[in-house]
Amino acid sequence: MPDIRPLASTEIDVVGAVLGLARLHQGDGVYLVAWQGSEPLGHAHLALTDPPELQDVEIRLEYRRHGVASSLTAYAEDEARRRGFHRLRLDVSVDNAPAQALYRRCGYASAGEAPRRVTGTIQLRTGPIEVDETLLVWEKRLSGGPHTTVSSRPDAG
Ligand SMILES: CC(C)(COP(=O)(O)OP(=O)(O)OC[C@H]1O[C@@H](n2cnc3c(N)ncnc32)[C@H](O)[C@@H]1OP(=O)(O)O)[C@@H](O)C(=O)NCCC(=O)NCCS
Predict the structure, then answer these.
(1) How far apart, in whole angstroms, are the C-alpha atoms of residue 25 and residue 144?
(2) CA geometry: angle at 56 spanning 143 and 94, to 5°?
(3) How far apart, in Å, do the first and last CA atoms of the chain sit?
(4) What sections of the chain are H helices per DSSP?
(5) Which is the closest atom of ligand 1 to the Cα of 65?
(6) Would you give the distance in Å from CA 100 to the centre of its chain?
(7) Structural domains of the chain, ranges and CATH numbers in brackets
(8) Which residues surround ligand 1 with Cβ inside 6 Å?
(9) pLDDT tens-place string over residues 125-155
(10) Among 3, 4, 11, 50, which residue's CB has the most CB atoms within a 10 Å radius?
């Protein structure tokens, strides 16, 4: 199991050297980073909008298919729950079969909204990129307390 924690400002250089951190300057959320010792394995951005959104899930090629994205997703869900949210959303490209398989397995399904075509230039930390893709909006209802809860509190909402 990787160690997951919010990105600290002192870790930006070491994480940014091997992962995109594309939404670093978006300013509406927190990057969650999975580590193995001093090695960053992958990250996810949790935008603290209402509802919150899981964005920029990226796992380094050599660490894929080891459950890292699943662990980051579960951590993001706990974080959203802890902040009082009852659902988590994400956009996934119609062409991204691996990501769809991941999110389906994590319990996400269509939010019932029409697919959205996105075209144009997007400014990322790493520079501008051209996009032309169709995004599906998926979401998951977050029930119960955080996975990390060790004791139940009857008054917890
Ligand atoms: C998609 C991505 C995040 C998955 O990360 P990961 O750490 O390899 O995912 P996990 O190991 O947690 O996978 C969990 C499950 O998702 C499904 N899955 C993940 N990658 C898959 C793939 N390439 N093909 C088919 N199913 C896949 C499988 O069911 C997998 O379980 P299994 O390995 O026991 O079969 C990773 O491939 C990646 O970084 N891709 C590039 C960036 C990207 O597309 N991000 C998503 C943006 S919405």
Answers:
(1) 32
(2) 85
(3) 29
(4) 12-16, 68-82, 97-105
(5) 11
(6) 13
(7) 3-141 (3.40.630.30)
(8) 57-59, 64-70, 92, 96, 98-99, 101-102, 105
(9) 888 999 999 999 999 999 875 554 443 343 4
(10) 4
